[in-house]
Amino acid sequence: MNTQDNIDFMKILFFGDIVGSPGREALKKVLPSWKKEYKSDLVIANGENAAHGRGITKETLTEILKAGVDLVTLGDHTWDKKEVVKLLEDGDLPLLRPANFPKGLPGRGYCFVQVGVYNVLIINLIGRVFMHQQYDDPFKIVDEILEEEEEKAEAIIVDWHTEATSEKVCLGWHLDGRVSAVLGTHTHIPTADGRILPQGTAYISDVGMVGARDSSLGSDKDIALKIFLTQINQRMEIGQGPVRVDAVLVEIDKSGKAVNIKQLQKTVEIG
Fold first, then answer.
1. Of the residues 52, 77, 186, 188, which is catalytic?
2. How far apart are CA 130 and CA 52, in angstroms?
3. Distance between CA 193 and CA 248 in Å, rounded?
4. For 160-177, how does the pLDDT look when each residue is reduced to its tens digit (9 = 90+)?
5. Catalytic annotation on 132?
6. Tell me: the pLDDT tens digits for 113-157?
7. pLDDT, tens digit, for every residue of 31-62?
């Protein structure tokens, strides 16, 4: 990372996977007050479940950005909506898909975002353990990105979208001291391991989600339970009722290292 003596503390607000319309509505209710309360400089959210739980559309992306999110990341549901190809091909949209998807696919896996006079590098990665597809090696890909780009960045944030906590924590160790934060997404359940690693990288295995509280990962709990009881696939629907909002606030100092990671959780009623 390119460190500068005159950089002040930077606050990054990062939301877990936004699930369907309940998640989008809850985000709109919570984000303005959290931005004001925590004085965040940059807001990132994982939006791969934004469109009825699977993928993202132009309409749902626009809604999330209008709510106050600066950049949206994706994951294994990236390609679930056909229109995402056009969204990813639009280089002006603040939208990332995992950098370790096969080469030649539409979109970007990382980008720089200007925060004041400083460059923040944001990298979107997807894991391989217990995932349905065999993606390219995320450890190798992130090394290549850092080798090329890290000197241009005052802070580096990684959205680490994968299933296995063993794989998640190992990337955290691999990047400790090299990036500002490694923030886990995908499993929708917030973990209790948020901390600063020894060399100054903020780490958490999973931030959680913005989705229905009384659900199965944001989906209707009764349908999900029926699948487990019968072993017969059902069409999943989005859970309803109160929405749990999970996020983390990461504070980064003038060296580009994290000094604090705070888990934020709130349950809100939506109309």
1. 77
2. 23
3. 12
4. 999 999 999 999 999 999
5. no
6. 999 888 999 999 999 999 988 899 999 999 999 999 999 999 999
7. 999 999 999 999 999 999 999 999 999 999 99
Question: Residue 263: beta bridge partners?
Answer: 248
What would the DSSP string read from start to end of 178-242?
Answer: TBSEEEEESS-S--S--EE-TTS-EEES---EEEESSSBTTB-HHHHHHHHHH-------B--SS
What is the distance between the alpha carbons of residues 94 and 113, in angstroms, rounded to a whole number? 9
Domains and CATH numbers, the chain: 10-214+241-268 (3.60.21.10)
Kind and range of the H or E element at 261? Answer: strand 258-268
Angle separating helix axes 20-38 and 58-67, nearest 10 degrees: 20
pTM listed for this prediction: 0.95
The H helix count followed by the E strand count for the chain is 6, 13
3-state secondary structure of 57: coil
